[in-house]
Amino acid sequence: MKEIRHIISSFDNTDHSEEKLALASVVKVEQSSYRRIGARMLVGSTGNWVGGISGGCLEGDALRRSQQAIYKNISSKVVYDTLDDEKNEIGIGLGCNGRIEVLFTPIDPNNPNNQIEQLRQAVESGKPAILLKVIEAKSDHSILGKTLLTGLDLKNLMFCGISGTQFIDAVKETRLKRRPQLLKLTDKDSNELQVLVEYVRPETKLVIIGDNYDVISFVGIAVEMGWEIHVVGRKKKMSKSIFANSKSVYEYEDYQNVPIDEYTAVVLMSHDYNHDKELLPYILKQNLSYIGMLGPRKRLLKMENDIGQDNIDKLNYFFSPVGLDIGAESPEEIALSIAAEIVAVLRKREGGSLKFRKGTIHDHL
């Protein structure tokens, strides 16, 4: 979401009378790739760009392809095949060993429904979004790159000649698994199309409960992650950096006013047992993706006795001691371990070393 926000900001700050834009987006990946489906790069006709579609190895060629899309005012798709570096000029030395398809689409700033505006709608909604995108249309090249931001109600939808009923199952599964899908469909004129059903993640919301100096480190990492930050504690104890980098700051008594949704992670870092004991039962009742509590295991055992072990054991999204086991000691390392655990939980991964992961690093379509 941080990358999408940067792209939207760049679009807003562009003088469209002087510079034209195109969006490069990864729409299909086979085998290994540094970036996955949904990675984006906004390119200007003058060579300015923001975002990325790889680790830096494809951006140079993507810049040239984007500018071609701008000048021709037509979308195009390019396949970067690095499965065998020795046989593919663009793949020499990349070491990716994958096949990546990238769609290049010119952006019309006068179109209120262009891709950037659709991404803006997804960001501002604060909820998960589904983006339909035509990535192959052999019989009608004009619809290549067409997109539609949609919800779950598809019964009366018509997208590029395809009835919304053909998307219903795929959209539901994409929202459930939080993973993109590729569909081969037939429009009303019996033309075959390939459509990407993309899951656009909402911005992760982080609620930190505490006001000690270690909160500063956690806020710093959360800023780099692009998370929406809310801090709960004694305001008079908090540093200026917490106020500067947080969307909102609350006193302990005002926790109930913090905006909470299913994509919110709450971490208790108060170092005050009584504060945690008072807030935790209320927090456990909320529909959260992640709850973490700082402190040793014996602190958790005492908490279980005081508020009821059943209330804690039945929740598989409650983590205490909090954080991944990386041997963290300093506030910065502890913040890193907690942030990494939150990402792992939200992505439904175990958080172990990739060295010991069986199969590929990323799940394939």
Q: Which structural traits does this protein have?
A:
10 helices; alpha/beta; 3 domains; five-stranded antiparallel beta sheet; six-stranded parallel beta sheet; elongated; 30% helix; 365 residues; Rossmann fold
Description:
This protein is an alpha/beta fold and 365 residues long. It folds into three domains: 2-107, no CATH class; 126-200, no CATH class; 205-346, 3-Layer(aba) Sandwich (Rossmann fold). Helices cover 30% and strands 25% of the residues. The strands form four sheets. The chain has a six-stranded parallel sheet with strand order 14-13-12-15-16-17, sandwiched between helices. Strands 3-2-1-5-4 form a five-stranded antiparallel sheet. A hairpin with a 2-residue loop joins strand 8 and strand 9 (162-163). It is elongated. The two termini are 21 Å apart.
Q: What string gives the helices and strands in order? A: HEEEHEEHEEEEHEEEHEHEEHEHHEH
Tell me the distance between the termini: 21 Å
- Biggest sheet features: 6 strands, parallel
The largest beta-sheet arranges its strands as: 14-13-12-15-16-17
What structural class is derived from the secondary structure elements?
A: alpha/beta
What ranges have pLDDT less than 50 throughout 5 or more consecutive residues?
A: 91-95
Briefly, what CATH class of the largest domain? Answer: Alpha Beta
How big is the Rg? 23 Å
Q: Which range best describes the helical content: under 10%, 10-25%, 25-40%, 40-55%, 55-70% or over 70%?
A: 25-40%
Name the average pLDDT: 86
Distinct helical segment count: 10
Question: What would CATH call the architecture of the largest domain?
Answer: 3-Layer(aba) Sandwich
For CATH, the homologous superfamily of the largest domain is named as: NAD(P)-binding Rossmann-like Domain
Domain unit count: 3
How many strands? 17
Looking at the structure, the CATH topology of the largest domain is Rossmann fold
General form:
elongated
Strand percent estimate: 15-25%
